[in-house]
């Protein structure tokens, strides 16, 4: 619905009110005379609530001219229905109208028309709305038919409202973009870092769910899909797929390492637990394929064992100095060795598809 405050001015001629006067060009009266003469019984179609302002007295004016022409002016606030379509929300443009019609007199008794056509409407040049731009403001007329009473003249005040999008970009679209891009960070994290990647995926999924719930709570409950729903659900799908992507990487990594351990005959006794399972239990990184002299990150478990069994401090410091010197040249190669091929493709496919989706979405709705 919408609420509008307006001055409603009626013009008609009633020869019974004509008078002879050489001095007065017109005579002005307040609302007390209205009950004693005939006035049009205009009402607002589809009105939910309307009232005449009465501070400090009723805002009603009646002006009568010597030839019987009458001007009847009211200051009214009316709330009326507008049949809005939210399928393109928040990139939508709404066309609403305020409709006026006589209640008792059909077209045989009373004819309603705009005195000066489209120029009959005049608005304040500085009108501004918090959510909309007023793109168009026009007047029109038509007929309404009722089966029991006949045809009636109906006047329309038409206006087109285009919604401000900047608020929704800040509150919905931009946070959703950030969450999708944040979910891609897991593609650059070591595939054996299970807590890091799982925590990042769950956090982004829950954040996207919160954004979607907040947008739905502030919207009218309609039975069709809105444009913002399409964007948020697609963004949620990207975040969800990033979690599924790591599930596939972790599963394939586990199978691959089991096969390698079986081939080398190292999966026996109490050491039959593979590297991924051991990391899940003790939080340490176990990798038999990577040379420890090239490892860019210190192993906390190995450091604890070394400190416990260390007998000669000078002999233990020599390998550490070598690892630090060779760190810069070997970080890139080790990262590539510790990445799965699915992560490598995901770094390209996910951003590319999301960019294409954004171009298609904004091109379709704007």
TrEMBL record:
Residues 1-164 form the Neurotransmitter-gated ion-channel ligand-binding domain. It holds the Pfam family Neur_chan_memb. Keywords: Cell membrane, Chloride, Chloride channel, Disulfide bond, Glycoprotein, Ion channel, Ion transport, Membrane, Postsynaptic cell membrane, Signal, Synapse, Transmembrane, Transmembrane helix, Transport. It is a multi-pass membrane protein. Signal peptide: none annotated. It catalyses: chloride(in) = chloride(out). It is found in: Postsynaptic cell membrane. GO terms for molecular function: chloride channel activity; extracellular ligand-gated monoatomic ion channel activity; transmembrane signaling receptor activity. GO terms for cellular component: chloride channel complex; postsynaptic membrane. Residues 173-262 form the Neurotransmitter-gated ion-channel transmembrane domain. The chain crosses the membrane at residues 165-188, 200-219, 231-253, 348-365. It comes from the Eukaryota. Belongs to the ligand-gated ion channel (TC 1.A.9) family. This is GABA(C) receptor.
């Amino acid at each position: 619905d919408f609420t509008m405050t307006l001055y409603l001015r009626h013009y008609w001629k009633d020869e019974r009110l004509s008078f002879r006067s050489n001095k007065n060009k017109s005579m002005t009266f307040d609302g007390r005379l209205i009950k004693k003469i005939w006035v049009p019984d205009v009402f607002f179609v589809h009105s939910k609530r309307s009232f005449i302002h009465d501070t400090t007295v009723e805002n009603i004016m009646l002006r009568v001219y010597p030839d019987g022409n009458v001007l009847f002016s009211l200051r009214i606030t009316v709330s009326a229905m507008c049949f809005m379509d939210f399928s393109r929300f928040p990139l939508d443009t709404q066309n609403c109208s305020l409709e006026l019609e006589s209640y008792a007199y059909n077209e045989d008794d009373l004819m309603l028309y705009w005195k000066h056509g489209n120029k009959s409407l005049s608005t304040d040049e500085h009108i501004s709305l918090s959510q909309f731009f007023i793109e168009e403001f026009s007047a029109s007329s038509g007929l309404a038919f009722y089966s029991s009473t006949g045809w009636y003249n109906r006047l329309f005040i038409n206006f087109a409202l285009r919604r401000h999008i900047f608020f929704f970009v800040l509150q919905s679209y931009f946070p959703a973009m950030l969450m999708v891009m944040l979910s891609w960070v897991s593609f650059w994290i070591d595939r054996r870092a299970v807590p890091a990647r799982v925590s990042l995926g769950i956090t982004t999924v829950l954040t996207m769910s919160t954004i979607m719930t907040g947008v739905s709570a502030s919207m009218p409950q309609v039975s069709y899909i809105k444009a913002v729903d399409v964007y948020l659900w697609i963004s949620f799908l990207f975040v969800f797929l990033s979690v599924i992507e790591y599930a596939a990487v972790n599963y394939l990594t586990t199978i691959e390492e089991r096969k390698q351990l079986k081939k080398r005959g190292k999966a026996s006794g109490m050491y039959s637990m593979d590297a991924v399972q051991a990391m899940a239990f003790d939080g340490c990184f176990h990798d038999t394929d990577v040379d420890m002299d090239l490892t860019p990150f210190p192993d906390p478990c190995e450091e604890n064992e070394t400190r416990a069994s260390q007998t000669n401090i000078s002999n233990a410091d020599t390998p550490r100095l070598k690892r630090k010197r060779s760190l810069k040249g070997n970080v890139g190669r080790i990262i590539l060795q510790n990445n799965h091929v699915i992560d490598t493709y995901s770094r390209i496919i996910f951003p590319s598809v999301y960019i294409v989706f954004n171009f298609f979405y904004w091109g379709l709705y704007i």
